[in-house]
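Entry type: protein chain
Record version: 2
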Amino acid sequence: MSAITVVAQLKKLATDPKNREAIVKDQGCLPGLVLFLDNSEVSVVKTALETLALLSESASNRVVMREELGMMVSLQAIVDRRGYNSRCRKTAQCLQHKLTQPLKTNNESTLRRSTRYT
């Protein structure tokens, strides 16, 4: 099975929010996606980034994703590649930002909304 086939299947699964937590918890999926970030084919990298972006929509996944070995280094490497696919670079940058932002608790969100109009 080719790299693009594997990553495309993971992306297809990740489009369903109910699958996202299971994909991140799986022993092989997240490490595999990180490895795909270093693939020589832009289409594989692009699809892996899109899949990771979908997985990061779940707040509970972000801490696990940030701590995954090689994740942040690989994202930074994509951002730093001059002349590389601009969409990949932008997606990697957005993912970096999302994964490094502190998670907001419900109390913080409620407090911000309630103090916004005072």
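Comment: The mean pLDDT is 89.
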